[in-house]
Amino acid sequence: MSRLTRRILPALAALALGATATSASAQNFPTRTVTVVVPFAAGGPTDTVARLVAEQMGRDLGQTVVIENVGGAGGTLGAQRTAVARPDGYNLLIHHIGMSTIPTLYRRLAYDPINGFEPVGLITEVPMTIIGKRNLPANNLQELVTLVRREGQGINLANAGVGAASHLCGLLFQSALNVQLTTVPYRGTGPAMNDLVGGTVDLMCDQTTNTTEQIRANTVRAYAVTTPTRLSALPDLPTASEAGMPGFEVSIWHGLYAPRGTPAEIVTRLSRALQVALRDPGLARRFQDLGTEPVAQERATPAAHRAFWQADIARWRPVIQAAGQFAD
Ligand code: MLT
User: 102 alpha carbon to ligand 1 midpoint, in Å?
Assistant: First the structure.
């Protein structure tokens, strides 16, 4: 045996063993609890989507799938947690349209907001609703438009930080009306909703997975939904277009991610569990009751998610640059 062979053989053997171990771990995956980070506070719209999906994925995977809420900084702290986690399939992230806006909004992040992740699959697209505190002196969207144009920064607009869906919707709302409101950031729109119901904050644009039940309970004023047509879950709520803001439409998609470098076989297994979860009739009913629905099966795949996400980053970049509001 040559001297060179003697030197490289152990390295080749180690590589082969490593590859075998990875393949074996991928074939047996999962063998323990899977953690899904939600980058916003518990009780909010993203948390609601994530818990419904995690429960069903756990059934298919045969392991518990737990949710870890890591709020703050518009959803970037939670995203960072997953981007730097071990790429072994046990550390996942459920995030939303913020994954498309954060790369433009934030110019200094401690993680790579695009290349730090393996998209696993899309989950759902959720409409937004424009809601106010019960005693806000505006009975409909047109009166609200008049009020915010008159009061400007005298109106407090709640959101979950720069990069959140509520921030994006608030940005578009202010741009459409050419007004500047005072924004009040929270670690999620779950806590923000408490202050809106309590009347200590005036206005919010938030996902139906957080607002539908409050609207039905009449604890907030509902002005409009941001979809082209009315929702079966909220049939009496007009669309923004019909209520006085033609073309004001925003839809918040959610997706599942693993850290970059997670073995492809594991990403595929996770995508399969996601697709099974999204076929569950109970989950579909719960989503419909909250004004949304699971995406079609072919969208809950890594390739479809990656293509959609890359196009969405490009779509939002000029919109955010035009608004000129960046995180730092
Ligand atoms: C949440 O779950 O708190 C929301 O998704 C925050 C947001 O994006 O507005």
Answer: 14
Model confidence pLDDT, tens digit, residues 3-16:
766 766 666 666 66
The pLDDT tens digits of the residues spanning 116-168 come to 999 999 999 999 999 999 999 999 999 999 999 999 999 999 999 999 999 99
Q: Within 10 A of 298 (CB to CB), how many other CB atoms are there?
A: 11
Residue 213 tokens, joined: 């039940």
Taking CB atoms and a 6 Å cutoff, what residues make up the pocket around ligand 1? 40-41, 44-47, 96, 159-160, 164-166, 188-190
Spacing, Cα 50 to ligand 1 middle (Å): 12
The residue whose CB lies within 8 Å of the most ligand 1 atoms, and thus the one to mutate among 77, 99, 206, is 206
Domain 31-126+252-323 is in which class? Answer: alpha beta
CATH number corresponding to 127-243: 3.40.190.10
